[in-house]
Design a protein that fits this description.
The protein is α/β, with parallel strands linked by helices. The protein has a single domain (4-342), classed as TIM Barrel (Alpha-Beta Barrel). The protein has helices spanning 20-31, 50-63, 84-92, 121-130, 150-165, 179-187, 205-209, 226-237, 254-257, 272-282, 289-301; strands spanning 4-8, 11-15, 36-39, 71-77, 96-101, 134-136, 171-173, 192-196, 243-245, 309-314, 322-323, 330-331, 341-342. The structure holds (4S)-2,6-dioxohexahydropyrimidine-4-carboxylic acid (DOR) and zinc ion. The site of zinc ion (ZN) has 5 residues, from loops.
Length: 343
């Protein structure tokens, strides 16, 4: 039985770090294992200009523990007022690596997102021209659409029209949760990829709702039926270069999770690598874990792979069930299964 597992140092292609005290509390958990991460811009107020992204990047660098080797890859939050020239300048300076599309109202801090997709066409055209990828939160916000169908409907109503209008635009469907999304990604010949979270490989909607409501398993897009979780496992462990890790680790204090209207998000940064190794071993695909965590993402983003490595050993991991922050405790995602790999 394999006792150690050495991977090129992983990257996280979708991460929420927040700001201030929360940033300082959660950043060390990602920096301990990951070399780079695509940083989500849904702060309050959001990161909308190149200057905002530069300032946020500086705050992240200042919050890094001494000696940490971690590079934040910044993104801009796309609004109907985003200036294509500002986007191009921030990209040319190397400040940003993607632009994030939130349909207005789809999730946490998405109120400044896009309602009229025609209005952002000039930005998307500029991004296609300069090779800057678009990250998408792939859910429609139409109240008439069932929450479990919102991803599939987004593909038909929003994503496919955008991709037809801008065929050279590189698009990442983030945190996919359905077989529909995995199939759509496979159907594209190029310029389309998807990230998959750690938690969506582990939980289905029963984890949230059966036997009592479990707010710590509530995230967006919400976990779907078991058949979809299995489809995500197939995609993630296939070695197909179009699928890679974006944890969507999204810290909220317990006080904000356990409300009558609690926040969406699972905080997986402390135990993500242990969980992924477990999932890939269950699927008989440990030899493909490195492609998912460390190779496919850089290839799609056009960045070099990392040269350092991380070694996991076969040992029960020791991680806290919550971390303390000045804002209050943040619960660490419980995979509800024994884990056997320690980074
Ligand atoms: O579960 C989620 N949490 N999904 C998102 O899209 C946003 C994120 C957050 O910022 O908390
Ligand atoms: Zn997210």
């Amino acid at each position: 039985m394999t006792q150690t597992l050495t991977l090129r140092r992983p990257d996280d292609w979708h991460l929420h770090l927040r700001d201030g005290d929360m940033l300082r509390a959660v950043l060390p958990h990602t920096a301990a294992h990951f070399a780079r991460a695509i940083i989500m811009p849904n702060l309050v107020p959001p990161v909308v200009t190149g200057a905002d992204a530069r300032a946020y990047r500086d705050r992240i660098m200042a919050a890094l523990p001494k000696g940490a080797d971690f590079t934040p890859l910044m993104t801009l939050y796309l609004t109907e007022n985003t200036d294509p020239a500002d986007v191009a300048a921030a990209h040319a300076e190397g400040v940003i690596h993607a632009v994030k599309l939130y349909p207005a109202g789809a999730t946490t801090n998405s109120a400044s997102g896009v309602s009229n997709f025609d209005k952002v066409a000039p930005v998307l055209e500029k991004m296609a021209e300069i090779g800057l990828p678009l990250c998408t939160h792939g859910e429609v916000t139409d109240a008439a659409v069932d929450i479990f169908d919102r991803e599939a409907v987004f593909i038909d109503r929003v994503l496919d029209p955008i991709r037809r209008a801008h065929p050279k635009l590189k698009v990442i469907m983030e945190h996919i949760t359905t077989s529909d999304a995995a199939d759509y990604v496979r159907s594209a010949d190029k310029n389309l990829a998807a990230t998959i979270t750690t938690h969506h490989l582990v939980i289905n909607r029963n984890h949230i709702l059966a036997g009592g409501i479990k707010p710590h398993y509530y995230c967006l897009p919400v976990a779907k039926r078991e058949v979809h979780r299995l489809a995500l496992r197939t995609a993630a462990t296939s070695g197909d270069a179009r699928f890679f890790l974006g944890t969507d680790s999204a810290p909220h204090t317990d006080a904000n999770k356990l409300l009558p209207c609690g926040c969406a998000g699972c905080f997986t940064a402390p135990n993500t690598l242990s969980i992924l190794a477990e999932v890939f071993e269950q699927e008989g695909a440990l030899d493909r874990l490195e492609a998912f965590t460390s190779l496919n993402g850089p290839a799609f983003y056009g960045l070099p792979v990392n040269h350092t490595t991380v070694t996991l050993i076969r040992k029960t991991p020791d991680y806290p069930d919550h971390i303390d922050t000045p804002d209050g405790p943040v619960t660490v995602f419980d995979p509800a299964m024994p884990l056997h790999w320690t980074p």
